[in-house]
């Protein structure tokens, strides 16, 4: 453990025996995994030691230890636990009913989702950034946990739940401001739910949703949408081009907590491989780019990262 990391950084680091199955009793959204072999940690340490312009790509698997579920993990992901699916962009735009359902569920989930804190993995990436090892952090997550950990050079590939945009004018606002607006417009409406979804959603019945007043743009009265990329939507071309340019300039790519099943992230790893850039992947389970990686570690992110010591 690097000496410059805060002492609290190591408090949640569990002791492991190589090959022992870790059931993660405190991490209900983290899939079962085996502890990383000592040699795996050594190889990743050498990878990080050798390269000084690393592009980091993070996915939902880095945030599960903070209590945010992912979509696809076996047994614990949203798809494994329920038949619920994320909202589709075109449905959201076209249907007032779907917008009502989305904002009602998001309103209920927001207090819990917005209070989630970064975990050891986010802090370790911040530490590597401070050491000058990382050029950019490209995250597929919308949870802002890299920001909360103090990282600076962050590209939010799929946007952020912290921002809201109008679909009809150029108005944008903070999600916290929208929460106050919804409260003012729904003084008698209440609902409760337990678990949050990867984008801050919760499950509510239609009976619970009935009566919820959908917020509208305070500037033009238009429909509001979180500034995130819904399924069926596209990452802005300028963002894609910027990341591709950074892939050209980096000397290695490090994937943390992403299965890369979504093409929006996979294409950058594929490009790095085509350019002959070294690639390391740290993720529980198989990923779409395992065959492209020079190093693949199938283990819990923070278990491995908290063992990294760089000179």
From TrEMBL:
It comes from Pinctada imbricata. Zn(2+) binds at residues 166, 169, 217, 220. The keyword Mitochondrion applies. Its cofactor is Zn(2+). It catalyses: N(6)-acetyl-L-lysyl-[protein] + NAD(+) + H2O = 2''-O-acetyl-ADP-D-ribose + nicotinamide + L-lysyl-[protein]. Keywords: Metal-binding, Mitochondrion, NAD, Transferase, Zinc. One of its GO terms (molecular function) is NAD+ binding. This is NAD-dependent protein deacylase. NAD(+) binds at residues 59-79, 140-143, 257-259, 301. InterPro entries: DHS-like_NAD/FAD-binding_dom (IPR029035), NAD-dep_sirtuin_deacylases (IPR050134), Sirtuin (IPR003000), Sirtuin_cat_small_dom_sf (IPR026591), Sirtuin_class_II (IPR026587), Ssirtuin_cat_dom (IPR026590). Binds 1 zinc ion per subunit. Gene3D superfamilies: SIR2/SIRT2 'Small Domain (3.30.1600.10), TPP-binding domain (3.40.50.1220).
